[in-house]
Amino acid sequence: MVEQLSDAILRVEGLRVSYRIGDREVEAVRGVDLTVRRGEVVAIVGESGSGKSTVAQAIMNLLAPNAEVTGGEISFDGQSLRGLSEARWRAIRGRVMGLVPQDPSLSLNPVRSVGAQVAEPLLVHGLASKRQAEGKAVELLEMAGITYPAERAKQYPHQFSGGMKQRALIAGGLAADPDLLIADEPTSALDVTVQKQILDHLEKLSAELGTAILLITHDLGMAAERADTVVVMRKGEVVDSGPAGEVMTNPSHEYTRALIAAAPRLSAHERRAAATSERIVFGGEPIVEIQNLTKVFPLPKGEGGKKSLTAVDDVTLEIRRGETLAVVGESGSGKSTLARLVLRLDDPTSGSIRFEGQDITDLKGEKLRQLRRRFQMVYQSPFDSLNPRMTIEQLITEPLLSFGEGDRASRSARARDLADQTALPGGMLDRYPDELSGGQRQRVAIARALALDPEFIVLDEAVSALDVSVQAQVLALLDELQRERELTYMFITHDLGVVAESADRVAVLKNGVLVECDETGKLFTNPQEDYTRMLIDAVPAFTA
Predict the structure, then answer these.
(1) Phi then psi for 295, rounded to 5 degrees?
(2) What residues form DSSP beta bridges with 291?
(3) Of 37, 151, 227, 257, which sees the most CB atoms within 10 A?
(4) Are strands 456-460 and 286-298 parallel, antiparallel or unpaired?
């Protein structure tokens, strides 16, 4: 962060944006004022649906077809951006104004290699030859924390984990060294070490090149530690703004105080241990037993010549009935692959998986299908797992319909109950996924997973897209359901604050290898491995 800030490069004055929904007009942004100076990092924080992303989309002229700027002014480097032709916008986007969008699953072309997409801004704006752009793409992927970048550049988005997709988008957003980078939840899917690496790089760009950065985020720890200025939005309006330290330590609005109070912190493990000491008997009956589990993926030929990637490497682990086991590690460490193996969504290369004493390693067909009603998964990217042509009610009740549970009326009642439990606003059941914010879509995915009353749920970054207040609600809901129904959770996450709030034990993965597993309090206060200590040390001081 810079000590002295120069003149404004971006000014937003009195911005108003409305959406046309059916025969209704809904005002999503109401008179927002915002200034970003050269070399400054400005963070917009607020709950999902507060209008943060709409402001970013309006600045870049990327609003949805049913949205319209109805008032105010947006200027960049002294020039108005209102009314520019699409040809002029093509010259601006990616070159002087870079964008890291919120959902990588929607932003990466599934039929083009990742490297080609990272290199695209360089080619579109004539900044490099094809060969130079390919080499630069590999450098950018490496900067963004992608291992084996030369090989990975030749892969396609479906071969990347959620965190790796996010890093690829960051690499593409930085490719042309823009004057202003708008980053919409740029690190929500990243582990703390890669998050630190990315933010350090952005901070370096800001300090050395004068790059201005507008961060859209629900991560208060990141905003407190990395931003010069924080702008707090609620229901389309700015309710608090000022220097980051002042807003976070002495907020002027009650809403800001509530957000800060809801932020998960590492110290929460003490409260979690006290609340669950009577319920969990450590050393009790395991519901899942994993023995010497290994998964090897082939890789395309690359400059390094590596032919395969061992995503899960000889892991032996058990998950006990009624507990929450968190699996942590850097993106690409094998967390999501381990989860998919446990649920038999992928076949292991070797090793075994037992569920309630039954060997399910080679289970297939109808027997596996019937077993799956007893365990469910909440995926990392809700948009990938939700059919865009189905209403929210249809999505939530689809598992019930698939297994012949209840009639239409009872399924609708169940959908309403689950929507209420997962804090979905009223009137959402008749909408479609693309009409919901990222956080709202994730709540739909959680409601859907709960529909069949499973015994074991894998949550793959299930709260990473949620703002802190809704995150706290969902974690409280999951804890309540666990107590009432003796549910068992396997929580895949990069957020150690969430781990402290919700996990009884923690397993740490590094490059597919299980390096440490212990009760949460013991692991946080006395980690045995340097890698674990590094993960803990990378947590922003605000939430430590």
Answers:
(1) -135, 120
(2) 352
(3) 227
(4) unpaired
**Cα distance between residue 28 and residue 30, in whole Å:** 7
446 contacts: CB under 8 Å, gap ≥ 6: 378, 422, 459, 462, 474
Residue 279 has pLDDT above 70, yes or no: no
Over range 120-127, report the average pLDDT.
93
511, two tokens: 């490059």
Determine the residue type at 12.
V
d(CA 497, CA 93): 35
User: Is the pLDDT reported for residue 296 higher than 90?
Assistant: yes
Q: 335, 344, 352: which is closest to 493 by C-alpha?
A: 335
For the cut 80, the answer to whether the pLDDT of residue 447 exceeds it is yes
Q: Is the pLDDT of residue 365 over 70?
A: yes
| Total-model pTM | 0.72
Question: Which domains, ranges and CATH numbers included, belong to the chain?
Answer: 1-96+180-186+212-262 (3.40.50.300), 102-177 (no CATH), 386-453 (no CATH)
Integer Cα distance of 155 and 93 in angstroms: 25
Q: How far is CA 15 from CA 241, 287, 307, in A?
A: 16, 54, 52
Strand order from edge to edge, sheet including 229-234: 97-100, 180-184, 212-217, 41-45, 229-234, 237-243
- Give CA 337 to chain center in angstroms: 17
Chain mean position to CA 436? 16
CB–CB of 179/98 below 8 Å?
no
- 283, 311 Cβ separation under 8 angstroms: no
pLDDT band, residue 149 (cuts 50/70/90): very high
Q: Are 448 and 379 in contact (CB under 8 A)?
A: no
Write down the pLDDT at residue 508: 95
Q: Position 80: which residue type?
A: S
DSSP 472-535: HHHHHHHHHHHHHHT-EEEEE-S-HHHHHHH-SEEEEEETTEEEEEEEHHHHHHS--SHHHHHH
